[in-house]
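for the writeup, i need someone to sanity check this before i put it in the appendix. the sequnce is what the collaborator sent (i think, or maybe the updated version? ugh). structure was predicted straight from it, no edits. if anything looks off just tell me and ill rerun, i have time this weekend
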Amino acid sequence: MFNVSIIIPMYNVAHYLQTCVDSVLEQHMDEGAYEVLMIDDGSPDQSRAVADTLAQEHAFISVFSQENKGLGGARNTGIRNAKGKYLVFLDADDILITDSLTKLIALAQENSLDILEFGAHQINELGEVIAIIAKNSEGIVYDGITYYDRVKYMNSACNKLYSRQFLIDSLCTKTHNLLTI
C-alpha cells in the first residue's frame, strides 16, 4: 500500500499536466510511497497522449480512460483504483508546494484524521499570487459535522488530504475527525 494516491482528472488540460506532475516530483518522497492516477475523462485534446508519455517516464504514474463523466466521475474512478492510505485530488492546473505533502501526511497520521484541510494560493498565469485561501486554525480538531457547522471552509476537493478508507466507508450517519491548518 502506498502512503498517498494523487488523483488528477484530465479534460482539455494537456498544457498543464507536466507542471502539475513536476510539483508531485518536488515532494521528494520515495517512489514506493506514492502513486499518481491520471484519469482521462474523454478529453478531446492531447491530455491522454501527454499522460501516456509521463507514465512512460515515471513508473508511479498510471493512466485511466473513460467516457466523459465529469469531474466527480473522474475522481470516483481515481478513488476506485487508488491504493494509497490517503488521497489527494489535484486539478491539472494545480501545483503542490515543494515538500508539503509529506508534512500533511505526517500530521494526518499523528492525529488519526479522516480529512485534513490545508490552505491554498490562487495564482494567475504569470505565477503571481492573487488570493490566499487559509484559515489560521492550526491544532483545531472537529468531527465532520461540527466542522461544516462552524468553519468557513474552501469549497474544493483539492485542498484536502483524505483517508481513502474514510471515503470508501463514509456514511452520512458517521462522525469523523477533521483538522484544518
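Helices lie at 14-25, 47-57, 70-81, 100-110, 144-150, 164-169. Residues 14-25 form the longest helix (12 residues).
thx in advance!!
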